[in-house]
Amino acid sequence: MNRTLRIGTRGSALALAQTGTVAEALERAGAPVELVRITTPGDRSTAPIAEIGVGVFTSALREALASGEVDIAVHSYKDLPTAPDPRLSLAAVPVREDPRDALVARDGLTLGELPSGSTVGTGSPRRAAQLRALGLGLEVVPIRGNVDTRMRKVADGELDAVVLARAGLARVGRLDAITEVLDPLQMLPAPAQGALAVECRVDDVDVEHLLQSTLDDAASRAAVSAERAMLAALEAGCSAPVGALAEVVEDIEDDAAGHGRTVLRLSLRGVAATPDDQLIRASATGETTAAEQLGRELAAELLDLGAAALSGPGE
Ligand SMILES: NCc1[nH]cc(CCC(=O)O)c1CC(=O)O
């Protein structure tokens, strides 16, 4: 690559850390890069995400990329809207961080140790529904702000705990603050949590190839594709908060001669919450090469299990 690649990034500690990993990988591959900070409406507003909409963090970056202001955009994959942008190519999904959610609680407490009536901050309807469904008597308090702001509410004694993505804490070097990593059996993460999406312009084939060959991880891409396909299919059919986790698992299969051989499969779990906090769960296993199909099938099953109830208020 004989031009300096401009990488667009938001200015938060998390965004800078994420962009930094991409920049380093490209520099190691011999591509000179430069970071360009983009401020998004999501950074300026303190309103709940549910009000300002998905895409508040990502659309300004995507515009900067499409218009040629930058050559590469790095997003938290889970913050991207499910509708593809025809101007852009999702050139790389790098190796995913641990996708689980994490509890940051006072006095080193775990969820089970928090007394009934404890306040737990989260702005995510998905986390709120799964927390309430545990039946622990926790009081879910809506909060917003960057990772530091949210953790400070626990340090200051304003809240007993907050739930955050473990990946975000890992990226800003604050794994020490975690008092419990939440088991996906209790708390399924957001579709694509812990993964990055690295985009370029659809006609910028040199950059597309560079990103793909330097950064893309097939297993991470397959897992995230299944989760996002599930989300997209559910969005079309309901307005429920959704969690999903796909994992590449080993399976034993008999070949033609009857010998067992190890094959890789994709295992997908999903959850959707009804407006009255009933959780609908389902899981399925499929081929790693048919990730999106697996996601769509699981969405159809979730809709079957509670389609009517999944339509939120006003629908
Ligand atoms: N919605 C905000 C957001 N977007 C990405 C992350 C963390 C990194 C990730 O989940 O990949 C976070 C913070 C959080 O959910 O705690």
Provide structural commentary:
- With 315 residues, the protein is of the alpha/beta class.
- The protein folds into 3 domains: 5-93 and 196-216, D-Maltodextrin-Binding Protein, domain 2 (3-Layer(aba) Sandwich), CATH 3.40.190; 101-181, D-Maltodextrin-Binding Protein, domain 2; 222-306, Double Stranded RNA Binding Domain (2-Layer Sandwich).
- It is built from 10 helices and 13 strands.
- The chain has helices spanning 13-28, 41-44, 49-52, 59-66, 125-133, 147-155, 166-171, 205-215, 218-237, 291-310, and strands at residues 5-9, 33-37, 72-76, 88-92, 101-105, 119-121, 139-141, 161-165, 180-181, 196-201, 242-254, 260-273, 279-287.
- It has a 5-stranded mixed sheet, with helices on both faces. Strands 7-6-8-5-9 form a 5-stranded mixed sheet, sandwiched between helices. A 3-stranded antiparallel sheet has the order 11-12-13.
- α9 runs parallel beside α10 (291-310).
- The chain is globular and about 60 Å long.
- The chain starts with a strand and ends in a 5-residue tail after the last helix.
- Bound molecules: ligand PBG.
- Residues 76, 78-79, 164-165, 167-168, 193-194 line the site of ligand PBG.
| Spatial strand order of the main sheet | 2-1-3-10-4
Q: Give the rounded overall mean pLDDT.
A: 92
Any idea what the radius of gyration is?
Answer: 20 Å
Q: Please name the CATH architecture of the largest domain.
A: 3-Layer(aba) Sandwich
Contiguous uncertain segments of 5+ residues: none
CATH superfamily annotation of the largest domain: Periplasmic binding protein-like II
Give the distinct bound molecules.
Answer: the ligand NCc1[nH]cc(CCC(=O)O)c1CC(=O)O
Task: Give the fraction of residues assigned to helices.
Answer: 25-40%
In the residues, how many domains can be counted? 3
Number of helices: 10
Keywords: Porphyrin biosynthesis, Transferase
GO molecular function: hydroxymethylbilane synthase activity
Function: Tetrapolymerization of the monopyrrole PBG into the hydroxymethylbilane pre-uroporphyrinogen in several discrete steps.
Cofactor: dipyrromethane
